[in-house]
Structures are given as structure tokens and as C-alpha cells.
Amino acid sequence: MHPLVLHSLPPAPIDSSFPPTPKPYSTLSPLPHNSFATTIRELKTAKLHGFAASASPSNPKTKTQKQDDDYHTTLKALNSKGRFPRRSLGQHYMLNGSINEQLVGAADVKEGDVVLEIGPGTGSLTNVLVNVGAAVLAIEKVLQEDFTRCHIRSHMSLIMEGRSFVESQRAKVVANIPFNISTDVVKQLLPMGDMFSEVVLLLQEEAALRLVDPSLRSSEYRPINIFVNFYSDPEYKFKVPRTNFFPQPKVDAAVVAFRLKQALDYPRVSSTKSFFSMVNSAFNGKRKMLRKTLQHICPPTEIEAALSEVGFQTTSRPEELALEDFVKLHNLISKP
Ligand SMILES: C[S@@+](CC[C@H](N)C(=O)[O-])C[C@H]1O[C@@H](n2cnc3c(N)ncnc32)[C@H](O)[C@@H]1O
């Protein structure tokens, strides 16, 4: 399947609360499937057709006028195709162009960067990315491809191959993703530090806080936190109140930037597979002591000895251990 994008939103029932009398869908034809360069050209054409426009940063309009324009442009883009957002696809469209600009700024996207966008929707964020001179690969489920099922590495490799990159230059990810696929996206992208340097995502605020600041000993501390810190340095950037989306979600959102580590900077473990399998087992069952939950790996006495060596009590539970403690524990108890 080709990952070419920016087309139309899916046919859907018209809701009475949505601006009525949809106009016929007129401008964009399906994108050719031959090259990435063509995709970018089409994205620019899309902007000319007014399919997805956000005010350019050089626009001298006032902030209020500009936000008003962003709002109307997004609604117009939806209405002109007689489409109604589907909640099942997490279609909450961004109405505020300055947040799109801040998202792009959070990833420090510059001319010549290659950027992966997941779920471009009406293309308002795509537009900002293209305007700063980035080459954008956008994957939209309603058009071409489901991100959670695609082979992102082969898509990206095809794009990177055709470009004259300095070897150290990696691509970036900038996306306003549906909240319901955020864990899948994080799990899929964070281990790809060889390909991406930054992953900037607009997430549900609660999820953003849980991923970035899970205090030790809290019930929010989970294997995903070990995973996130193993592969990246996450940073909470800013909150995005729910009023900035259409339709308005029930919760606020927030932007998180994950700076991806490269393999050389990962904590030293004999095998990442056995490390994460140990971490998952450690959290299995509520309030279980590690000497119990890990006894399929080695006898409890050995686990107790390892815990003492790492500086913990023999009765310790998983929420007491930080990433580096799990790494030490794994290296002491895992069999080569
Ligand atoms: C929150 S909306 C964001 C739309 C647009 N980027 C914006 O900021 O207004 C999420 C978009 O992701 C698309 N989407 C949902 N699930 C997806 C998936 N599994 N793979 C790719 N795109 C998906 C939806 O159709 C929708 O266009």
C-alpha cells in the first residue's frame, strides 16, 4: 500500500449540529502513487485549492482575526465535502493555526527536514510543515493507510534513499494523533531512533502527564514508562485546551516531545526482549513483590540477593525501581 495522502474525509452522516448544505467535493483527485516528490507537489496544490489552509506566519492579521480564519477554514474544509467527523477515528480537528505552528516549532522543523505526519485530516498541520520547507509523508487511515498496520520503516527508507542526506540527519514526526492510538504510536516509533530524531505528539493531557512524569511509587507507574525512558528523553511542552478542537473532545490535550536515543545510548542490557519481558512480568498483578513476580526467571533467593545488590529491600515492589534499577536487576538475574 502506498502512503500517499491528503484527499477527502470519509463519507459520513450529516449531523444537524454541523453547518448544513454541504457543497460538492470538487478539487483534489487521488494522488499518483509513484513518488514522494509528487506527494509534496500535491500537498502544495491542495493548499492553493484552499483545501487545507492555515494563515501563514507572515500574515499581518491580528491574532484574533487569524484564529477566526483558522476556525472557519477548518470548518469550511470539512463542510465543503459534506463530511462529518467520526469520533471512532479520533477526528478532532485543530481550529487554531498558532498551535500547529507551535507543534512544528517544538520539533524544530526546518527547510529540508523529512517529517512523518500521522492523521493529516484536513491538512492544516501538513500545510504548516510544507510551508517551512519540510518534505512530508502523511499517513491518513481514511485515505490510504492505517498507521498502526503499516510498515513505516520501509516507507521512510524509500523516501530517505532518494534524498541527499548527511548521514547523521534523521527524520522527525509531528502529529495530532487520535487519542485511541497514542500507545500504539509511542510503542512503534520510540525504538526507531536510527530513523527519527524527534517525535512530537499532541496527546490527551492525562496520557501526556503519565508518560512524562510518572512519579515513582504512584499507581500510574507502568512498564510503558520504563519503555519511554529506555528509548527517549520525553518533555512535556504545553497544554492545549479542548476548546481548540472541532468537535470538542471531553478532555484537554498536551504536546509532548520525545527526543529519541540512538542504539549506542540505550541502557546496556543483554537483550531488550528479555529486559522488557522482565519489566512486564514485574508489574503483573497488583502489589506483588518482585521476588514473587520474577520467580519464573530465577529462584526468589537469587532475586532477593540481586535486589540487595542494587540497593533495595528484598521485599521491594516494581513501582520502587527506576529504569536504571531495572537494568541492573535484569543484568544480575537474567541468564545469558
Ligand atoms: C485528531 S485528528 C487530527 C487531524 C488533523 N491533523 C488536525 O490536526 O486537524 C486525527 C486524524 O487521524 C486519522 N486517523 C485515525 N486513525 C488513524 C490511523 N490508525 N492511521 C492513520 N490515521 C488515522 C483520522 O482520520 C483524523 O484525520
From TrEMBL:
<dbReference type="InterPro" id="IPR029063">
    <property type="entry name" value="SAM-dependent_MTases_sf"/>
</dbReference>
<keyword id="KW-0808">Transferase</keyword>
<keyword id="KW-0489">Methyltransferase</keyword>
<dbReference type="InterPro" id="IPR023165">
    <property type="entry name" value="rRNA_Ade_diMease-like_C"/>
</dbReference>
<feature type="binding site">
    <location>
        <position position="119"/>
    </location>
    <ligand>
        <name>S-adenosyl-L-methionine</name>
    </ligand>
</feature>
<dbReference type="GO" id="GO:0000179">
    <property type="term" value="F:rRNA (adenine-N6,N6-)-dimethyltransferase activity"/>
</dbReference>
<protein>
    <recommendedName>
        <fullName>rRNA adenine N(6)-methyltransferase</fullName>
        <ecNumber>2.1.1.-</ecNumber>
    </recommendedName>
</protein>
<dbReference type="GO" id="GO:0003723">
    <property type="term" value="F:RNA binding"/>
</dbReference>
<feature type="region of interest" description="Disordered">
    <location>
        <begin position="1"/>
        <end position="24"/>
    </location>
</feature>
<feature type="binding site">
    <location>
        <position position="92"/>
    </location>
    <ligand>
        <name>S-adenosyl-L-methionine</name>
    </ligand>
</feature>
<keyword id="KW-0694">RNA-binding</keyword>
<comment type="similarity">
    <text>Belongs to the class I-like SAM-binding methyltransferase superfamily. rRNA adenine N(6)-methyltransferase family.</text>
</comment>
<keyword id="KW-0949">S-adenosyl-L-methionine</keyword>
<dbReference type="InterPro" id="IPR020598">
    <property type="entry name" value="rRNA_Ade_methylase_Trfase_N"/>
</dbReference>
<dbReference type="InterPro" id="IPR001737">
    <property type="entry name" value="KsgA/Erm"/>
</dbReference>
<feature type="binding site">
    <location>
        <position position="94"/>
    </location>
    <ligand>
        <name>S-adenosyl-L-methionine</name>
    </ligand>
</feature>
<feature type="binding site">
    <location>
        <position position="176"/>
    </location>
    <ligand>
        <name>S-adenosyl-L-methionine</name>
    </ligand>
</feature>
<dbReference type="InterPro" id="IPR011530">
    <property type="entry name" value="rRNA_adenine_dimethylase"/>
</dbReference>
<keyword id="KW-0698">rRNA processing</keyword>
<dbReference type="Pfam" id="PF00398">
    <property type="entry name" value="RrnaAD"/>
</dbReference>
<feature type="domain" description="Ribosomal RNA adenine methylase transferase N-terminal">
    <location>
        <begin position="99"/>
        <end position="262"/>
    </location>
</feature>
<feature type="binding site">
    <location>
        <position position="140"/>
    </location>
    <ligand>
        <name>S-adenosyl-L-methionine</name>
    </ligand>
</feature>
